[in-house]
Design the sequence.
């Protein structure tokens, strides 16, 4: 008879013997998925209660458990190149537990104690909050370490850092521009002088005046940003997207994805109404739930679709804004699209040993998981990778 609490506690303390491990695996094969999932939740609670002086859970053992479980789940399935949601959710639970174990270790262990687990020496932490603020004179302020502070900028402009957000006091000047940029592995929030709120994803930037005093409130962006525009019927809010597109609104919530290595520039509307224009061409007005797509051609390429804006009538809103809510949402995403997200969030470089596998993913998981935790998930789903330094090679 397996005592679940006892064996989980032993796993957490790395005290499981080979015989106990084998017996536990055999027992797991007899349990329904719901019970195993509850078991993982219990394991997570045990990890959270670990004494700080104890070693973290053994990820290799946990991965072995998961392999046994996933093998049981998929034994009767025909192999496919699409990752099933149920299996992915299963694997995500394991990854979350691994992340929890890593958090306990890295947060509370004394610095002088060497890390005994191989996974920690090769792991890469997930992205975090942080940004660089560049003033109009070129001086730069790193916002990562300013948790709560009031900072004087130029010409009397005052802004306040509150947690992961920079808030302007609306006492700047129209002709004084600041730029907030997030490198790979960073994200941050911004409240503009008119009260408009902006969430900036990794590898992105926004340039804006320290006061909006003209007839139009204009900003420039690269990368990806989510906007909650403060309503002002007399002064439209206009976004210049990499000099390729414009988005004009009065007051509304929407997301703009404009990375230069993605196929399209996407504007997705959650509330209100926006007009999207491709430079030099007629624009379209989209409604809540719709997405406007503009082909994202490279400078040396001829844009044969110039002037065409494709409107998706039923956009996947949840997937679009998942990043703002701290999630990866891979539903319907090709592997190379997923890898571009990982490059930006984990600050890694991805290469493919034999070209890009034609795999479509499904499912969601937290962006708080370490890269090794996520790679374990991918491995269980048939995507094998090798991590050397900050270069990730996709082997299959």
Sequence:
């Amino acid at each position: 008879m397996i005592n679940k609490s006892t064996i989980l506690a032993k796993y957490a303390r790395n005290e499981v013997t080979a015989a106990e491990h084998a017996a536990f695996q055999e027992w797991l094969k007899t349990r329904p998925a719901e019970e195993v999932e509850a078991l993982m939740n219990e394991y997570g609670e045990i990890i959270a209660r670990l004494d700080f002086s104890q070693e973290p859970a053994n990820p290799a053992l946990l991965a072995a458990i998961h392999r046994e479980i996933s093998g049981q789940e998929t034994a009767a399935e025909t192999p496919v190149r699409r990752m099933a949601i149920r299996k992915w959710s299963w694997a995500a639970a394991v990854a979350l537990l691994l992340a929890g174990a890593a958090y306990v270790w890295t947060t509370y262990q004394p610095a002088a104690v060497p890390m005994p687990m191989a996974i920690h020496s090769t792991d890469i932490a997930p992205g975090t909050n942080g940004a660089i603020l560049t003033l109009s004179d070129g001086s730069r302020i790193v916002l990562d370490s300013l948790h709560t502070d009031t900072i004087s900028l130029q010409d009397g402009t005052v802004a306040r850092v509150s947690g992961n957000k920079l808030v302007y006091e609306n006492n700047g000047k129209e002709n004084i521009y600041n730029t907030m940029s997030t490198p790979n592995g960073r994200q941050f929030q911004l409240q503009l002088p008119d009260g408009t709120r902006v969430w900036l994803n990794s590898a992105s930037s926004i340039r804006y005046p320290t006061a909006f005093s003209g007839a139009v409130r204009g900003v420039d962006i690269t990368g990806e940003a989510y906007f909650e525009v403060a309503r002002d019927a007399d002064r439209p809010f206009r976004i210049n997207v990499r000099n390729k597109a414009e988005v004009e609104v009065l007051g509304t919530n929407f997301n703009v994805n404009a990375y230069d290595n993605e196929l399209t520039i996407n504007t997705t509307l959650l509330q209100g109404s926006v007009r999207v224009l491709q430079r030099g061409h007629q624009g379209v007005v989209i409604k809540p739930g719709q997405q406007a797509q503009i082909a994202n051609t490279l400078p040396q390429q001829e844009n044969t679709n110039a002037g065409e804006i494709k409107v998706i009538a039923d956009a996947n809103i949840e997937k679009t804004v998942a990043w703002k809510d701290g999630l990866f949402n891979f539903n319907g995403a090709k592997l190379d699209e997923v890898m571009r997200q990982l490059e930006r969030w984990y600050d890694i470089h991805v290469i493919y040993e034999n070209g890009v596998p034609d795999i479509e993913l499904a499912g969601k998981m937290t962006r708080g998981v370490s890269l090794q935790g996520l790679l374990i998930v991918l491995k269980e789903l048939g995507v094998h990778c090798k991590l050397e330094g900050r270069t990730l090679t996709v082997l299959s």
Observations:
- The two ends are 41 Å apart (CA to CA).
